[in-house]
Every structure is written in C-alpha cells, then in structure tokens.
Amino acid sequence: MQGVIAFFQNSFDVIINYGIPFVLTLSIVVFVHEFGHFWVARRCGVKVLSFSIGMGPEIFGFTDKLGTRWRFSLLPVGGYVQMFGDADPASATVDEQAKAMPDAEKRHAFFAQNVYKRIAIIFAGPAMNYIFAFVLLLGMFTFLGVPSQPAIVDTVTPGSAAEVAGIQPGDKILSTDGVAIKNFAQLQRRAIFNDGTPMDLVIERHGAVQHIAVTPKLIETTDRLGNPAKLRRIGISATTKTESYEPVGFVGAITETFEFIGNFTQDTITVISQMIRGTRSTEDLGGPLRIAKIAGDIAKTRDIGWYLDFLVRISLSLGFVNLLPIPLLDGGHIFFYLLEAARRRPMSERFQEYASRVGLGIVLSLMMFTLWNDAVFMKFWPH
C-alpha cells in the first residue's frame, strides 16, 4: 500500500514540478507561432476553421463570432491553425468539396489565394516567434541591462587547453579569430561552438598585446542546472565571480537584441552543420522530455529572468526549425510556393503527396531520435 501511495505521490510531484512548466512554456510559444498564421490569414481574407493549442481530441474550447473554433487539445506537443479549404491541419491537401464550391465561397479558402498571400500566411508563424523573442529580449535588456563580466582571466585550470597554450591569470582577452570580445560570456560562446580547431586569441598582458593559439577541449561538465553536459572549454574562469548587469538604454537594447538573435541563429546553423560533418555529437539534440526537465528545473529557481531567457530560446528554436525546407514544416510549404511562383504553376498534387510522406517520415524520425536522446540524457535508458 505504501508503494502505491509513493507512486502516486511521485507522479503528482512530476506533474506539478515538470508537467505544468512544460505545458505552459510550450503553449506560449505554440500560441505565438499559430497566432502569426491566424492573424495574417484573416487579413488576407482567409476563413480560419480552428485554432488549436495541442494535438488530438479537444479538451475544451469556444467558437468566436467569425466561426473559428478555439480549442485546447489533449496532447501538449504542438498546435495548428486549420484554414477553410484544407483537408488537414497541415495544409498539405485540399478539401475536394471546397474545390467544387462557387467562386464567391471559394475566395475565402487558403488554396484559392495567390501564391504570395500563401507565402505570407505560412511565413508569419516563424516570423511571429522571432518577433515575440525580440520583444522579450528588448524588455529584458532595457530594464535589466546586459550581462557584464570582463574577459579577464582569474584562474587557469591545470591540464586545460589554456594552460597548454600559456594563458596566465591576469590576461585580458581582446578578441578571438578577429572578433572583438566584450565580455566573458562571449568568449565562452566562441569556445562552445568551436569545432575543435585552434582559436587565435589576442590578449593583453602587462600592457603588451600578443597572439595565443588555443584549441578548446571537449570535456564532461555540468550546466547551470546541474545537468551533465559535454562542452568545449578553454579552461579559464573570469575575474568577476558574480555576473553583473550593465545598463545600455533603449537604443543600446535594440542593438543587443538584434545581436543576440543573430548570434543564436548563427549558432544553430553552426551546430547543425557540425553534426552533418560529424564534428559534433548528435546527442546534443533534445526533445520534449528534455524541455520539460529544463522548464521544471528553472521553475524551481523562481528566477523570472532565467525563465524569460529560456522562453526566448525555445521560441527562436521553434521559429528556426519551422523554416527548414522540410515538407510538412512551414519552410517546406514556402519552398514549394517559391517553386510555384518561379514555374507560374503549382507542383502536381501527386508530387506534393509524396513529398508530404517523405516530410512526415523525416519529422517522425527526428522526434523518435530526440526522444531516445532524452531518455539517455535523463537516464531512463543506459547509453
């Protein structure tokens, strides 16, 4: 009996500590994404049949005055906006009955819009994720400032790449590979996304400037939440132990926001290319279980700034992934519409059907792979 009670108690704790933060986080970024599709579709004269947060059977919802069914569904792993004339929520196929409708009714269907309107509607989802991240970052940088931790070496880890290269306490890092270093976090980022090639550091030591070549080592460490991680490190720590924030004003915050989003997008492309080339392990790919764990761990800290930073990164990730030219994803639709614009006629329905099947296979394979990675990461399954 005690075992049963303990099981239900543990299950309840998991739901409260991890399930709720996960559903909240995913619901926010999915709502933002789908609202982008919804908002532009309505302005293009397209009727929206349903707006769903989550997949599967509806739990509860309501219908607005324009006939859109707003619903919360059982499985909190995505969402969709289904538009008039579509046979499925992914807009992969056209409803045959809608094709036979009179032009007066058909003009409100998604498939009846010109190719540029369709591109705008599809692009609006990922774009809204980026806009949402921009607004959050702008607010954080405006009111909190930007992290300011000087890139001055305090300690050098014995046996590290820094020690081998001859870096010493008191050295000030001025640039890496020609890129100026403003703070220690920027130096860390350059090391983390390095692919194992030497970095050219320009340092200032006792007033003299010199070049030092250092190759970051891949080491097993822990992230800020105490989770195991394999990251490339130089092997130095900064002079300032506690991170402080520097006010930058509204104009400075705009610049910092663009720089953050640009760096995040560039880093994402770098990681994908390194995985394709085999210079980075694919175990870094995480899925819903890892997102749930991180969301729950951050929620436990009750640090709203940290959570907003996490929300920004999830929103940018969702926007970026959906722009990949994979059938079924927004990027796949946009790619086909661009081909249609160039050819001045749509791709054949048979071709789009086969492409959708391939896209579904790719998406499902990625989902299964990330779930496997999550199981290994959370020690549900031995590596």
Description:
The chain has 383 residues and is of the alpha+beta class. β5 and β6 form a beta hairpin. The radius of gyration is 24 Å and the shape is elongated. α1 crosses α8. 52% of the residues lie in helices and 20% in strands. The two termini are 34 Å apart. The chain has helices spanning 2-43, 96-99, 103-106, 115-144, 161-165, 184-192, 249-277, 288-301, 304-322, 330-343, 349-377, and strands at residues 48-63, 69-83, 146-148, 153-156, 172-176, 179-180, 199-205, 208-214, 217-222, 228-233, 236-238, 244-246.
Pairing-aware structural class of the strands and helices? alpha+beta
User: What share of the residues does DSSP label as strand, in percent?
Assistant: 15-25%
Radius of gyration: 24 Å
Q: Say how many strands there are.
A: 12
Q: Assign a percent range to the helix content.
A: 40-55%
Number of helices: 11
Q: If strands are numbered along the chain, what order do they take across the biggest sheet?
A: 6-5-7-8
Helix and strand run: HEEHHHEEHEEHEEEEEEHHHHH
| Average pLDDT metric | 85
